[in-house]
Structure to design on (423 residues):
């Protein structure tokens, strides 16, 4: 059996950093990545034959749990008939319908192959629709790796403390304006200075890439009012929150009506799918109906559509409130266990998402998320991993539960936390 270590050594000679996405490299926690051989429900099995309870869940897609039988069967049945035609197929119509039926703000939708493609395309559409260049994003917000979004980005950019935006021309990022999450005065100031040229505000309605940060009362509504007042579009990046915070996404949970919505992760059920959608009047600017160009060889391919459709149809019957309550109780007990060890702890939680920060400061934006003690996080991550608990290798990510996590999983995780010793 080739171990994770041997595979990583080999991968490092073939792939930059040995990984196909930076945050997986576990650099910030001074560990090597585990190579996964298989996954089922809430469990991962590594190439070393070790089993872990998974709270990364592929960074969000696996809300039903890994290898869900309905999804696996849909993939197998569809694969037997071909995987990609480069032509329209029934399944992309059916997934489009399911997304439009579920997400209140989406009247028309375009499928792409990643969250990055979705946000990149939504911004181009906003610029084409408004004739403006500017975009406002938030410190610590992560919207994928398109040039415009790499200013003060969260997720792996924050994890690696990558300064600025190497490789991104200043001419591009000069159109990107920044404000702090939950700071409407900061947003107003940007609009006072640049409002005439701002095409859109893009926001994670619940922030998941600076750790989990919740919108304070009035924040999202304020963004809706400010953008409307200035003729800018409001783009909800629901790549994490879509079909997770509620079946209809954060926009359903918080009752906000964005102009455009970006989706990913869950709507692919583990296969590469992203989507952007919104008001029909805006979406019809997209080629070939309109002239704002966006395209993709594998967009809407039957295999990915089948996985996404089976996932969304199965999620429609799940009890989101029960999972939210179970996750709330589990993460609260985890917070209590860690606080009893004398370390500073702040917990943010919503639905099947939570983050434990190692700070006494209320975490409401990127600067307060950055007060979390990185060394305490590394001790926590390392000792939990030694005890078979697989957490995101970064303090700027969320923990994801799923409909596959059992009470026994949560109790085993709490047992592992009780055994952690902080120095
Ligand atoms: P992808 O291009 O990675 O499919 O989606 C980009 C994206 C867009 N918007 C939000 C809110 C996102 O969270 C993401 C991607 N999330 C990260 C983890 N937080 C993906 C993990 C990775 O980069 O490997």
């Amino acid at each position: 059996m080739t171990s994770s270590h041997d595979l990583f050594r080999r991968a490092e000679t073939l792939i930059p950093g040995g990984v196909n996405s930076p945050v997986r490299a576990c650099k910030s926690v001074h560990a090597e990545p585990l190579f996964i051989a298989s996954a089922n429900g809430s469990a991962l099995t590594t190439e070393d034959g070790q089993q872990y309870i998974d709270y990364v869940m592929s960074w969000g897609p696996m809300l039903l749990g890994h290898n869900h039988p309905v999804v696996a069967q849909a993939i197998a049945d569809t694969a037997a008939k071909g995987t990609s035609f480069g032509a329209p197929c029934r399944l992309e119509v059916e997934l489009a319908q399911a997304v439009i039926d579920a997400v209140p703000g989406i009247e028309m939708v375009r499928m792409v192959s990643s969250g990055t493609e979705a946000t990149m395309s939504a911004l181009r559409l906003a610029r084409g629709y408004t004739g403006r260049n500017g975009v406002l994003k938030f410190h610590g917000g992560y919207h994928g790796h398109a040039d415009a979004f790499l200013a003060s980005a969260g997720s792996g950019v924050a994890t690696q403390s990558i300064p600025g935006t190497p490789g991104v021309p200043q001419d591009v990022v000069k159109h990107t304006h920044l404000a702090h999450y939950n700071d409407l005065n900061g947003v107003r100031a940007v609009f006072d200075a640049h409002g005439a040229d701002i095409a859109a505000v893009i926001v994670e309605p619940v922030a998941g890439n600076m750790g989990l940060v919740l919108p304070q009362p009035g924040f999202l509504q304020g963004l809706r009012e400010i953008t409307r007042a200035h003729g800018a579009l409001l783009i909800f990046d629901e790549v994490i929150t879509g079909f997770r915070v509620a079946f209809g996404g954060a926009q359903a949970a918080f009752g906000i009506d964005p102009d455009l919505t970006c989706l990913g992760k869950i709507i692919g059920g583990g296969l590469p799918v992203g989507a952007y959608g919104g008001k029909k009047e805006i979406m019809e600017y997209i080629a070939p109906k309109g002239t704002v160009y966006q395209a993709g060889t594998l967009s809407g391919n039957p295999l990915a559509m089948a996985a996404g459709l089976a996932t969304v149809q199965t999620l429609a019957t799940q009890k989101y409130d029960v999972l939210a309550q179970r996750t709330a109780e589990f993460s609260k007990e985890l917070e209590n266990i860690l606080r009893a060890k004398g370390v500073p702890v702040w917990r943010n939680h919503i639905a099947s998402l939570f983050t434990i920060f190692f700070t006494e400061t209320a975490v409401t934006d990127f600067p307060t998320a950055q007060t979390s003690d990185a060394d305490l996080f590394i001790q926590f991550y390392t000792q939990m991993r030694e005890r078979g608990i697989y957490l995101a290798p970064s303090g700027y990510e969320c923990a994801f539960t799923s409909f596959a996590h059992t009470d026994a999983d949560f109790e085993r995780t709490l047992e592992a936390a009780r055994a952690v010793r902080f120095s």
Remarks:
- The first helix runs from residue 4 to 14.
- The pocket of KE4 is lined by residues 21, 23-24, 59, 114-116, 119, 142-144, 155-156, 204, 208-209, 237, 239-240, 264, 274, 397 (CB under 6 Å).
- The longest strand covers residues 198-203.
